[in-house]
Amino acid sequence: MLVRGCAGGELRHSLSEKTKALAAKCHALRSPAREQRGTERRRTRQRKSQTRWYVKQPTWRLWGEERVDGAIYTVYLKKVRYHRPTRCASSESDDEISHLEWETVRVRFVKAGTVDRLVEALATDDGELESTYVNVFLATYRSFAECSKVLDLLLGRYETLAADDVLSTGTENSQQHRKTLVACLHVWLDTYPEDFRQPPHHPALQQLLTFTQIHLPGSELHSKVLQKLAIFSAERNGSVGGSGVSLAPGMRLPAHHTISYRLPHVPHRHFAEQLTRMDMELFKKLVPHQCLGAIWSRRDKDRSHDAATVLATVNQFNAVSFRVISTVLVEPILKPLERADILAAWLDIARELRVLKNFSSLKAIISGLQSNPVYRLRKTWALLNKEKAELFEELARIFSEDNNRWAQRELLMREGTAKFADTVGENDRQLQKLLHERGSPGVSHGTIPYLGTFLTDLTMIDTAIPDTVADGLINFDKRRKEFEVLAQIKLLQGAANAYHLPTDPMFDRWFDSVIILDDREAYQLSCQIEPQTNAPKERRPKKNENNNGHRKNDSIASTSSSNSSQFYCETDGVGTWKRDSLERRSSPTRLSHGSSSSSIPSLDVSLSSANSGPKQLNGKVANSPAHPTRNGPDFYIIRVTYESDCVETEGVVLYKSIMLSNNERTPQVIRNSMLKLNLDGDPDGYTLAQVLPEREMVLPANANVYYAVNTAYNLNFILRPRRPETDVVVNGKTKNKRA
Amino acid sequence: MREYKIVVLGSGGVGKSALTVQFVQGIFVEKYDPTIEDSYRKQVEVDGQQCMLEILDTAGTEQFTAMRDLYMKNGQGFVLVYSITAQSTFNDLQDLREQILRVKDTNDVPMVLVGNKCDLDAERVVGKQQGANLANHFNCVFMETSAKAKISVNEVFYDLVRQINKKSPKEVNKPRSRKHICRLL
């Protein structure tokens, strides 16, 4: 396979170039794919037409394609030095040794093949480990083969080679080849242990165990398999449940500490660190191959768990955005300046996130601030000081969609594995100032990327590049392309280990306690804060304008919110299209409703609200414009605390905010509160009381709570289990002994 | 040259990305790269006018709900896509449209309703008339397309360009940054 020769002058040049590339690879990069990608990127900017980097490298030349039974190879001719120095010792001095002889090696890359052929290709023709190929294969094989199938083939190949050896018909390579297969199994077990979990019986692992017992007893692989088995069965038998955080006594912080969990007066750095800690935990758990287009973008009811770790990240992103939106809007009576302070506080947190290189929460906050209900508050934004406004512009610029998100991609490229943030644009005055102030921090930070860009890229690759080529062979070049993205994710995951952030359970409680508004609720609140200034344009089609027998659609529009919400509930298998994990956690019953025919708007709101969770609030909020009562708010936000005898929550005020609309009666409000507070049971078993300065007002069993509450005071409520025969309801304004 | 920002919206799995790729690249390109700067840019001639279309495809990020407002704010024209093989994807558009109108604060937004995957007629659950009715109600254009079979894909984008032209015919060409001009020439 070796072709000697080639002219000297050209070689000299390419030698130094190649060596430098190699040296860079050795000391800076673990993943060849990143190097590849990086080079490719740089090239892209230099020349328009771009192909794989090795084609452009002077020492690589595309030779052609080679077809064999069941596989197609791309063949390159590669010039290498005849006497290879030890691999990592390449240094500048190599440049001087240019008189060495050269040889041209023929290198084959699998372009496409059957599963059998792809498994065979894990080792080269010489039986050597093809490490890049192995990485690509293991990262992507799930899109074309089952775990068990690949394992069968791998073990089968080993056994064939072993049998050849016994009959001494084997080639000299066969020993080496088997070693390589074992190495592959090691990599597989180490890198993707989840593939072998398959509870409850771990069939693949069992199969591997049998194999090692026969062929490799006492080997390293054997003990690794035993060890994995032990871990899995321990996990199965051991503490599976009970991850719910309970309040250990040590976690109770003195009351004055809770003050710092109310925006805008929060420690920005601390908030940024805690958000980063949350993101980091999810990001490290992220299984990169779940991001593949074939898995993530084709998720549906049956397969949503296939992408669970991706979904968790997305949910967290949304949760952060929702918290921004909610904290800005949830208190309608704030003065504009106070509200501007909340914006400023989020910007300060965002700035810290930039320093921490947490692009996920950073983008989530920017998205929250740019969401329509917040962004449209012109008067509030106008009160931000100039520096904050600039900061917002600069941070938002990072995530500009222009030029296929070039700014963001470039930044990630530069800082992804850097120790700390050090990249600013020439126009970014605030960020320049920030990085200048901070200097180079003593500690290095990891990086948390915004995952969406990767997800889009992988979806596009999956769409644009066919799974199979001619003759139905698996298109492995597609997998290489996908791996370029996966490798980048993996690299960043590794970098995320550089974060060392403390855990603050009180922050998590604050995070969980923030109310979530859906986009209609948020818009409604936003319009209360700053009514639409210009004469409201007629947005909806006039009632009978297009009346041509399709009244059904019209009626959907006028009550669309309740309807289409139901559509979501009915149809969206994942169920997270528009709400975050917290909300889903607290309302497991949500998904079960919405069975009513979607074409019949449920105008009887009180009826429909009786059998659903807070989602139904939408209906009311959105329906309310139909009644031209523009006088007061159509709903209040109330806070509900749960009082029980449980000692554990003593000293911690835990409240949930819920929306109270103008036609909700006591049982419904109790039901909503129970959902938010995660309480099960019969709503009749609870009472609800408003906390007034001197007393509590217990709400009558079927009062319209909206009208009954005393709005002269804070809307704080206590939900407590009903004690038999002790609550005396008199006339709707019951006095009760103070608890 | 006038630039048009077009946003493709719709639930996961309706074939948004296929529409975009088909329009911008023509499908089945050997060396496709979605990460370069002009992956989603295409120059076309509509009614004798050269136009630069920049497509913003939300594929893969449908569930990042908080980001939709920004897409909508920046977009000039919208492709609302459902799949004729999945009723739910059709139903989802009602909310998306509401959101667009809210963000744009106007009722007049260039928009095309697209029933994709019309090559899969055997699996059809959303009737053509249903789509037409919804479009009528949205007061927008309706097309059934197949990204796979290359049916009516370009027409969707051309129609949007015409709608945008009609709505704001005199929009002054924003000078593009020097960088871009270099690249385009």
Structure in a nutshell:
Chain A is α+β, with helices and mostly antiparallel strands. Chain A starts with a strand and ends with a strand. Chain B is globular and about 40 Å long.
Give a topology summary.
The complex is a heterodimer of chains A (739) and B (185).
Chain A: E1 2-4, H1 8-28, H2 32-46, H3 53-56, E2 60-68, E3 71-81, H4 93-96, E4 102-113, H5 115-120, H6 131-140, H7 147-166, H8 173-191, H9 203-215, H10 220-237, H11 255-258, H12 268-285, H13 293-296, H14 308-329, H15 336-355, H16 359-370, H17 372-375, H18 378-382, H19 386-398, H20 402-415, H21 429-438, H22 451-464, E5 474-475, H23 476-495, H24 505-513, H25 519-529, H26 551-558, H27 560-571, H28 581-586, H29 605-609, H30 617-623, E6 635-642, E7 655-661, H31 666-677, E8 686-691, E9 696-698, H32 705-708, E10 716-721, E11 734-736
Parallel strand pairs in A: 6-10
Antiparallel strand pairs in A: 1-4, 2-3, 3-4, 4-5, 6-7, 8-9, 8-10, 9-11
Chain B: E1 2-9, H1 16-24, E2 41-46, E3 49-57, H2 68-74, E4 77-83, H3 87-91, H4 93-104, E5 111-116, H5 128-138, E6 141-144, H6 153-167, H7 178-184
Kindly list the characteristics that best describe this protein.
heterodimer, A: 739 residues, alpha+beta, 6-stranded mixed beta sheet, 5-stranded antiparallel beta sheet, 32 helices, disordered N terminus, disordered C terminus, B: 185 residues, alpha/beta, Rossmann fold, 7 helices, 22% strand, hydrolase (chain B), GTP binding (chain B), Rap1 (chain B)
Question: What would you note in describing this structure?
Answer:
The complex is a heterodimer of chains A (739) and B (185). Chain A is an alpha+beta fold and 739 residues long. Helix content of chain A is 49%, strand content 9%. Chain B has a single domain (2-167), classed as 3-Layer(aba) Sandwich (Rossmann fold). Chain B has helices at residues 16-24, 68-74, 87-91, 93-104, 128-138, 153-167, 178-184, and strands at 2-9, 41-46, 49-57, 77-83, 111-116, 141-144. Chain B has a 6-stranded mixed sheet with strand order 2-3-1-4-5-6, with helices on both faces. The radius of gyration of chain B is 16 Å and the shape is globular. Classes of the chains: A alpha+beta (739), B alpha/beta (185). Chains A and B meet through helix 2, helix 14, helix 16, helix 20 and helix 22 of A and helix 1, helix 2, helix 3, helix 4 and helix 5 of B. Chain A: One of its GO terms (cellular component) is plasma membrane. Chain A: Residues 555-565, 588-609 have a biased composition (Low complexity). Chain A: InterPro entries: RA_dom, Ras-like_GEF, Ras-like_Gua-exchang_fac_N, Ras_G-nucl-exch_fac_CS, Ras_GEF_dom_sf, RASGEF_cat_dom, RASGEF_cat_dom_sf, Ubiquitin-like_domsf.
